Amino acid sequence: MPALGASQEFFQIAEDETTRHSQSVKKLITQLDLLSLHTMIEDFSDFQNRFFNGSEYSMKASRWLYTKINQTVTASNATGVAVEVFDRAGWDQPSIIVSIPGMSAKTIVVGAHQDSIIRPCYQVPRDYAPGADDNASGVATLIEALRAILRDPDFAQGHVPNTLEFHFYAAEEVGLQGSKQIFDSYSSQGREVKAMLERIGVLTDYVDLGLTEFVRMIITTVSDPTLVTNHASAQLHGYPAAMTFESKFGDHSRFIHTSLDRADTININHVLQHVTLVIGFAYELGFAPLGNEDITEEL
Ligand SMILES: [Zn+2]
């Protein structure tokens, strides 16, 4: 198991930068749509399941997600935003990547997984696995944050120093396979991922301490306290990663990975807090000076 990372630059940014754009972030937050957020969670958890392979419902859910993302991007009138279906897996469900190009290839990633599962019978693709908290709420969080971020003229017109990506992972519940494929690909291409935040319903052991400190600073600035921990596929490739959870550990939904993880058990105000966190994370790191310039750019 790799050692826990601790990127010093994020400790530095946490001290210097986190409040720099707080007024812009707060302005976006005032326009969030609680009803839309709740409706997305209901709609996405209405599918019988979103199991990654061998399930007709999963494919329907992924198509719903792809359409919702495209509608959100189109309605924003932003320029240059790309919605890519990442479909190089040996299973049915694709991951989806939204890229908001900045002025450099340095990339900030926020991610959430789209698949759902119930245990212990998770190999049966007809199971009822609504996965509202885990992780329709994470998917809705990202879409609402995307909608808000694209209202900002600098992001909408590509004037932000760093590139921002929203990832919707397939096949997380079967061992982080969807995110692993993407970060394997990014690593082999030498992609410069500077920070990754995942909104997910389970806890893992891979975290960049510097980035996590940065996220804590954002929470202090624009959101209410919640537990912050980590995520693995990005961190395994040396990409600094952090993760947020829907509530304090031990106080989370008991329904995760059961047929009872339904939309009517969701605390929508917790979800809304996560939207504000994702916006703060994306906005501040979008503008943050991250690492040295690539020397080859100057030759
Ligand atoms: Zn799960």
TrEMBL record:
Recorded superkingdom: Eukaryota
Source organism of this protein record: Aspergillus oryzae (strain ATCC 42149 / RIB 40) (Yellow koji mold)
Cofactor field: Zn(2+)
Record's protein name: Peptide hydrolase
Family annotation (InterPro entries): M28_fam (IPR045175), Peptidase_M28 (IPR007484)
Subunit structure comment from the entry: Monomer.
EC identifiers of the protein: 3.4.-.-
GO BP term (any one): proteolysis
